[in-house]
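Entry 12.
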Amino acid sequence: MTISSEGAASTYTFDKHAVKHRFCPNCGIHPHGEGQVPQVESKFHKAIQSIIIAVFKKWETSVGDSMKSRTRTARSIAILITTVCVFILGLWILAIYLGMQPAIKNYTQQPFADAFSGINALFAGCAFGGVILTIWLQMYELQETRDELQKTAMANQAMAESSIKMATHSDERTVLELFQTYCSDYFQVVKDSSMSVLIPCVASKEYCDFVASRFFVAGQLAFPPACWEKVSRVTYCKNFEEFVQQEQRYRYKLDELINFFTLLVGRSNSREIIARCDFSYSWWRPLLWMIAIGQENHYKSNPVVQKYATPLYLKNVVERLDEIYGFLPFQSDKEFWEFFLHHPKILSYGLDDEYQKLLD
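Predicted 3D structure (tokens):
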């Protein structure tokens, strides 16, 4: 069964109801729609679009000015050549006319020859003038080339600036997305699990050395059961078996936290927006530095690790974060350990006395 009347077709709308979808109520075929789908653009896309339009308008203006300048130059040269040709032709006609005058014979017996000799001398002068004109035109063309190169350089600079702006917008957007991730419920679990490793590292240097070694593919230390006496004072685990079972999962979350901060400092064009966002770095700073220096010491003291492991990166990350958040850089490991041993928050975690030996 088919329908022939448009009024017999049914109409369906959805979402913003901007488009009316017409379909057959019998077979369900969708022959056409009426209306226009609204365009939805984010502020980011509008900003990028405005930058691109501004750059191309500037380029179009530059090209238009260049074409107008070339047109004026070509017109001026054509007028100059036409004027010279007309002037030479006029001289020839004048020479013929003077040679035909009877009075000219009172001055010379060869009026035509003398007249044309004078014109030939004039032509020689004109040829010299032509050489001068050619040199001038070459200099003019050279200047135009320089102007074109300068305009091209300006256009390239404008494109580079627009690319930087686009990259900055992109980096800022990425930082905001990372901040949303940092504030999410899922990442709260990552932070809590990371603290479940870092605080025991403060309470037991032996456990901290173990954790630092587990970031490498080779030269990994075995879990030290003797650390439980100190760790048990700060962990939420009720017994040693539970801690052994849970701490590996906690270390995976710590690795995820470190990767998060690594991605964050990779946004090189957005240090201002990173500094304005509260990533609680003042809390993480002494703990991340503790792990970073532990990694570095384990790497330098173990040739097997140097042979098989990937290069270190955590220390570069915390150095970059210190720069972004305005902390003075540590000039040596000893300076850090002095900072670490007197940090009020670290002391509240039950600091292991073994760390004091790092200053002796």
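Annotation: DSSP finds twelve helices and three strands in the chain. The chain has a mean pLDDT of 78.
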